[in-house]
Design a protein that fits this description.
mainly alpha, 5 helices, single chain
Length: 158
């Protein structure tokens, strides 16, 4: 390993670390807003169809936001640095080998590809391996959903 080795997905040549992190934050925030809009639209249609009105929308945003936040927090936990193999005469503790997934290799989903065409992101051009992990973006989406739920409650019920 050379001394100038960098993990995949870092800042491009000549780009400052602050600007790179800002681009990642904007990408995650736009993703969070897009997920919130999709969940909000589905909650609105379902709530008004069932007669729940705006309270049902606010409640659905709160529940889904809390669930997404919990799921994202669970996904963000670090991977264990060992594995246990059970054998006939006991067990053996081993370190994961080279067959594990490559760190930084991320595939882009169709939803993420659609979100990447939204105006602020279409000009930024962050490759998939430079973006935050899907779990980190879901954490942001959960926070945005909870904020939308609080904002909706403040506007309609206070």
């Amino acid at each position: 390993m050379a001394d100038d080795w960098q993990p995949p997905g870092g800042p491009s040549e000549g780009e400052s670390q602050i600007r790179f992190r800002l681009r990642q934050a904007v990408d995650a925030l736009v993703y969070g807003v897009a997920v919130t809009l999709v969940v909000g639209a589905a909650a609105t249609a379902l709530s008004f169809a069932l007669g729940g009105g705006w309270f049902g929308v606010e409640f659905a945003l709160f529940l889904v936001g809390a669930a997404v936040l919990a799921y994202a927090a669970f996904q963000l936990r670090p991977a264990k640095r060992w594995s246990v193999e059970f054998q006939e005469d006991g067990y053996r503790i081993t370190r994961p080998g080279d067959d594990a997934a490559v760190v930084g290799s991320r595939e882009e989903t169709r939803f993420q590809a659609t979100v990447q065409r939204v105006p602020p992101l279409s000009s930024m051009g962050l490759p998939a391996e430079s973006r935050l992990s899907p779990a980190a973006k879901l954490l942001v989406a959960g926070i945005v959903m909870l904020l939308a739920s609080v904002l909706l409650e403040a506007l309609l019920f206070w």
